[in-house]
Write a structure and sequence with these properties.
Layout: H1 3-8, H2 10-39, H3 46-74, H4 81-84, H5 88-110, H6 123-156, E1 158-167, E2 170-180, E3 183-188, E4 194-198, E5 201-206, E6 209-213, H7 217-221, E7 229-233, E8 236-239, E9 243-247, E10 253-256, E11 261-263, H8 269-276, E12 283-285
Parallel strand pairs: 9-12
Antiparallel strand pairs: 1-2, 2-3, 4-5, 4-8, 5-6, 7-8, 9-10, 10-11
Helix pairs in contact: 2-3, 3-5, 3-6, 5-6
C-alpha cells in the first residue's frame, strides 16, 4: 500500500485501527482475569469478565474523536509547552469522568441480562480507583495520537509559503516550500488542485499527494490569487483551472480533473459562478 492510497482512505483505516486495538486490549484484559480465577480454583465467571473489561475499553472509542480534536487544537510544541500542557489537567478530568459515566451506564444495562445487579461501590474510592486507571489510558492515548501525527506529518511533509509576486496591487503567494524526510521541495500554486481545512491545518492537494500546512483556510485564501482560487465551502478552496464540471442542483459539488468531488455551499455560489464565467468550456450538470 502506498502512502497516497493510505491517505485517501485514512479516516477508514484510523477507525478500524482504533476499534480493533481497543477490542484486542479488552479481550486480553478479560482473559487475564479469567485465567487468574481458574488458577485460584474459582469459577471463571467469563461472562462477567468479558462484559466488565469490554464495557470499559470499548467505551473509550466514543471518547477518541473528541480527544483527537483536543490534541490537535491544543497544538502543543516546545515553544508553548510550559503553559499549554496545563490544559491536559482539566482535559483528563473530563475524559476520565466521561469514561466512568459511560461504562457504568453500559454495565447497568448489561448486568440485568445476566440476572445480576451492578453497583459502583463507594463513590470516592471508586472514582479514585477508576481515575487512576484512566490516567494511564489518557496518557497512552495522547502519546499515541501525538506520535501518529508526527509520523504522518514527516511522511506527508509540511508546507509553508516561500515567495510571492505583486499583481494588481495585491501580493499573492505563488510558491510553497515542503519539508519532508529532511528534504525540501518547491510547489507552485498552479499545481494545487484544491485546499481542504483540517482542524488547525490545511491540506494542499496536489495530484496524489497532500501536504499539511499550519494555517487557517481563511488566512491562506487571503494570500492566494482570487482569480484562480475560490472559496466554495467552509472547508474547501478550489483552483478554478482544475475544475472539470459543476453540479448546480441537488447536492452542489464540483468535480475536479482528477475525479475528486468537492462540496459547494450555497453561500459561496455567487463568487463561484462569477469565477466560472471565465471557463466557457466548463460542463454544468443539472
Amino acid at each position: 500500500m502506498t502512502l497516497a492510497t493510505y491517505l485517501r482512505h485514512r479516516t477508514l483505516y484510523e477507525c478500524l485501527a482504533v476499534v480493533l486495538l481497543t477490542l484486542l486490549f479488552g479481550v486480553v484484559s478479560a482473559t487475564s482475569i479469567i485465567i487468574e480465577h481458574i488458577r485460584e480454583g474459582e469459577p471463571s465467571h467469563w461472562q462477567r469478565a468479558f462484559s466488565t473489561e469490554l464495557s470499559a475499553t470499548l467505551t473509550v472509542i466514543l471518547l477518541v474523536p473528541p480527544l483527537v480534536w483536543f490534541v490537535n487544537r491544543l497544538n502543543l510544541g516546545w515553544t508553548n509547552f510550559r503553559w499549554r500542557v496545563l490544559w491536559h489537567i482539566p482535559a483528563f478530568i473530563c475524559f476520565s469522568l466521561a469514561h466512568i459515566g459511560l461504562f457504568v451506564s453500559v454495565r447497568k444495562m448489561l448486568w440485568p441480562l445476566a440476572n445480576e445487579s451492578y453497583t459502583f461501590g463507594p463513590l470516592f474510592l471508586g472514582l479514585l480507583y477508576e481515575m487512576r486507571k484512566g490516567l494511564l489510558i489518557y496518557i497512552g492515548l495522547v502519546l499515541t495520537i501525538q506520535a501518529y501525527q508526527f509520523i504522518i506529518d514527516r511522511l506527508q511533509g509540511e508546507a509553508g509559503v516561500l515567495g510571492s509576486e505583486h499583481d494588481d496591487a495585491q501580493t499573492y503567494s505563488r510558491q510553497f516550500l515542503v519539508k519532508m524526510l529532511n528534504k525540501q521541495y518547491l510547489i507552485k500554486a498552479d499545481n494545487i488542485q484544491w485546499i481542504q481545512s483540517a482542524s488547525n491545518y490545511v491540506l494542499l492537494h496536489c495530484g496524489d499527494r497532500s501536504y499539511p500546512m499550519r494555517q487557517t483556510l481563511s488566512g491562506l485564501a487571503a494570500q492566494l490569487d482570487t482569480a484562480q482560487f475560490v472559496r466554495v465551502h467552509r472547508t474547501a478552496v478550489v483552483n478554478i483551472s482544475r475544475v472539470r464540471s459543476f453540479q448546480d442542483s441537488g447536492d452542489l459539488k464540483l468535480d475536479l480533473l482528477d475525479g475528486t468531488s468537492v462540496p459547494v455551499s450555497k453561500s459561496c455560489l455567487p463568487a463561484l459562478k462569477q469565477a466560472l464565467t471565465s471557463r466557457p468550456a466548463l460542463v454544468s450538470q443539472p
